[in-house]
Design brief:
The chain has about 170 residues and is of the alpha/beta class. It has helices spanning about 35-45, 65-85, 95-105, 110-120, 125-130, 145-160; strands spanning about 1-5, 10-15, 20-25, 50-55, 90-95, 130-135, 140-145. A hairpin with a 6-residue loop joins β6 (about 130-135) and β7 (about 140-145). The longest helix has 20 residues, at about 65-85.
């Protein structure tokens, strides 16, 4: 299982090379730690992963303000706590490591990562990495990639075969 954390989050599950789910979900009450914890906990109980991949946060290089970095850290803590509660190991992966593993280039764009993953899992790249346009222009302002980021994390731990190190448990 790969989890992209934040107020807008993503989660993907790969089992035996098959993509079981790739979803984005909104943590509407990002200031409520219990709500965040229960949201993640429910997905862990439902999917019963043997290992979870979480993206490391680069605070020094973050384009987000201090409050957003704190919320990201809190979300990460809730994912880790939920994993620990169910004895599910987690692996932390830095964005450059993830990008290099998938595209061969550590500074690849979210779009480039999505295009590689779309060819592997036969899913539309626009679904993994949604373009956001300027209001008055037809130019792309940025990409939102909760699904793409979570699939990249899930692919990384699946392809590196972390499952052999962490056998699946029943909860």
């Amino acid at each position: 299982m790969g989890v992209d954390h934040g107020t807008n989050s993503g989660m993907s599950v790969i089992e035996n090379g098959t993509l079981l789910t790739c979803e984005d979900f909104n943590i509407k009450r990002a200031d409520n730690l219990k709500y965040m914890y229960n949201s993640i906990r429910g997905r862990l109980i439902y999917w019963q992963p043997n290992v979870v991949a979480i993206e490391k946060v680069n605070v020094a290089g973050s384009k987000f303000g201090g409050n957003n970095v704190i919320k990201l850290a809190e979300m990460r803590a809730m994912i880790k706590l939920a994993c620990l509660d169910y004895d599910i190991p987690f692996v932390e992966v830095s964005p450059p490591t993830l990008k290099k593993y998938i595209t061969g280039y550590g500074k690849a764009s979210k779009r480039e990562v999505a295009e590689v993953l779309s060819s592997i899992y036969n899913i539309d790249a626009d679904e993994l990495c949604k373009p956001i346009y300027y209001k008055r222009k037809k130019e792309i302002k940025e990409y939102v990639a909760e699904k793409g980021d979570s699939l990249a994390l899930a692919h990384y731990i699946y392809d590196k075969d972390y499952s052999k190190d962490f056998p699946k448990k029943k909860y």
